Structures are given as C-alpha cells and as structure tokens.
C-alpha cells in the first residue's frame, strides 16, 4: 500500500484553487510534500479555461452580471463552469506507481478509481476508451467534447478531467457535477447569436449529465467525497493519511495566486 496525503479544503475562489494545486506540485518536485489527493469546491462559481484556450471565448459582461469569476488552468482542455460539483486533484512525482508510464497509462489508472467511486454511489457508469479529445476552437465547452477513458452514464459524460506533466511531477484534476443546470456555462461564453447559444446548450445537455440527473436524487458533497476516497484506496492500493496544507504550501499558493492565477497576464494571455 502506497501512503498518500488526503487533504480536503474549504470552498474557495478559482484563482486560489488553481494556485493551491500548483503549490502542491512545486513542493512535491522539491521533495517537501507527499503525493496528494485533494478534494475541493468553488465559491463563487468560476469559469475555468484550458491552458491554451482563447480568452476571446469568454463573454465578460454576462460573466460579471452573474457574479461568476474566470481563471485559466495549468492543464489543457476547454471551458468548465465550476459550481455544484466535487473537484479532485491528484498530484505526485512521475515515478509514483499511480502516475508512472505517461499520460494515457496514468489517466487510465485514475479513471478506474473514479469509475469505482461513482459506481458506489449507485450510478450505472461505463468507462469508454474512446479517442483523444479534439479540442478545436469551434467547441469551447469541455463537457461536450469526448475524451479518452471518459466516464459516462447512459452515453452521457459524467466526469471531465485533464492532466499536466511537468518537471516537478504530475497534476491531474477533474470535476464531478453533482447538481444544477450544466447548460449554464453557455451564458458565460461568446456565440455568434442567441440561436447558436441555445443550440450549444441543447447539445451539451444531450452529451453530459450530473449525478442528480442520472440518479434522480441529490448526493451530498461529503458523500461523493467519501466515495472518491474509497475508490482511490480500493483501485489504486493507496493508504491515505488526512493532512492539511503546510505553511509553506499556503504561502506559496498565495504568491502564485497573486502573481499568476489572479492576474490578467495569465488569464488573458491567449
């Protein structure tokens, strides 16, 4: 059994959440932090863009009118509206058994744990090998785009994940939508006209789902989090020790948030 840290952080702004993941990765690269599964939520709702996604996809006026924020992730992919969800991040060195062997091998291992977790919530999920996601400029929405080893319910995508492999190690994070209207994201993105916006919303609802929609009942955040912990333990042979972020991780996260994730030079760089 591999020993990992489990940290569960309070709901926070998008810039802070992304900065914390990066701070953990940096500390792991320096040998100062253990491999970590972090579970968290977002407050207020936040639109996150993939690392190379054009900022022009964002409808700033609509975003502000709804009180939503925007952040750019360190990982690739397309836009996600983070609200009413459980978010996970897995961070460790590239030599960790869970993360070794490259993107697809590690992605597959983690997908097995995610699949086990949501099955324990009584969701009839399938994990399809599929094909690498085609993140073309014509489609700004992550949950409408198929990806390798995606987890689906009745043919609809349930969990969206993305991975970055850096010199310091590996970071993968992803989202399990628990409740709410997935099509809300279309209100924060630029479309040619209102018909195009509505068509995009309808396509999204046909291709993706939430836990509540799939089950017909609400699953509390805490119950979903417990299922994730059990899934990672069972499928990846991990032994978790509950731990808080260190003082130096928190300090570095604050610096990274101010200098990068909360700054237009990063958020609007593409």
Describe this structure in words.
This protein has 270 residues and is α/β, with parallel strands linked by helices. The chain is built from 8 helices and 11 strands. It has helices at 14-29, 60-65, 103-119, 194-207, 211-215, 221-236, 247-261, 264-267; strands at residues 2-8, 36-40, 46-49, 69-72, 80-82, 85-92, 125-128, 150-153, 156-166, 169-177, 238-242. The chain has an 8-stranded mixed β-sheet with strand order 7-8-9-10-6-2-1-11, with helices on both faces. A 3-stranded mixed β-sheet has the order 4-3-5, with helices on one face. Helix 1 (14-29) crosses helix 7 (247-261) and helix 3 (103-119) crosses helix 6 (221-236). The longest helix has 17 residues, at 103-119. The protein is globular. The termini are far apart. Residues 132-137 have low confidence and may be disordered.
Quick synopsis:
With about 270 residues, the protein is α/β, with parallel strands linked by helices. About 35% of the residues lie in helices and about 25% in strands. It has eight helices and eleven strands.
What key phrases describe this protein's structure?
eight-stranded mixed sheet; 8 helices; 270 residues; alpha/beta; 34% helix; single chain; globular
């Amino acid at each position: 059994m591999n020993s990992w840290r489990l940290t569960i952080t309070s709901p926070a702004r998008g810039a802070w959440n992304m900065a914390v993941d990066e701070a953990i990765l940096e500390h792991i690269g320096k040998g100062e932090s253990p491999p970590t599964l972090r579970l968290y939520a977002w407050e207020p709702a936040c639109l996150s863009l993939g690392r190379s996604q054009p900022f022009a996809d964002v409808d700033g006026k609509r975003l502000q009118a709804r009180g939503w924020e925007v952040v750019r992730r360190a990982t690739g992919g397309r836009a996600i509206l983070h609200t009413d969800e459980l978010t996970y991040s897995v961070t460790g060195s590239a030599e960790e058994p869970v993360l070794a062997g490259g993107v697809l091998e590690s992605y597959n291992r983690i997908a097995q744990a995610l699949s086990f977790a949501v099955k324990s919530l009584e969701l009839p999920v399938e994990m399809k090998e599929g094909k690498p996601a085609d993140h073309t400029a014509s489609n700004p929405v992550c949950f409408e785009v198929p990806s390798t080893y995606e987890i689906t319910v009745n043919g609809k995508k349930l969990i969206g994940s993305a991975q970055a492999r850096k010199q310091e190690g590996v970071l993968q994070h992803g989202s399990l939508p628990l409740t709410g209207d997935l099509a809300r994201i279309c209100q924060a993105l630029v479309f040619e006209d209102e018909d195009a916006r509505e068509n995009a919303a309808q396509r999204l609802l046909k291709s993706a789902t939430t836990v509540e929609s799939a089950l017909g009942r609400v699953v509390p955040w805490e119950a979903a989090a417990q299922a994730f912990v059990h899934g990672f333990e069972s499928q990846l042979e991990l032994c978790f020790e509950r731990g808080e972020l260190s003082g130096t991780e928190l300090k570095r996260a604050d610096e990274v948030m101010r200098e990068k994730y909360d700054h237009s030079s990063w958020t609007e760089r593409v």
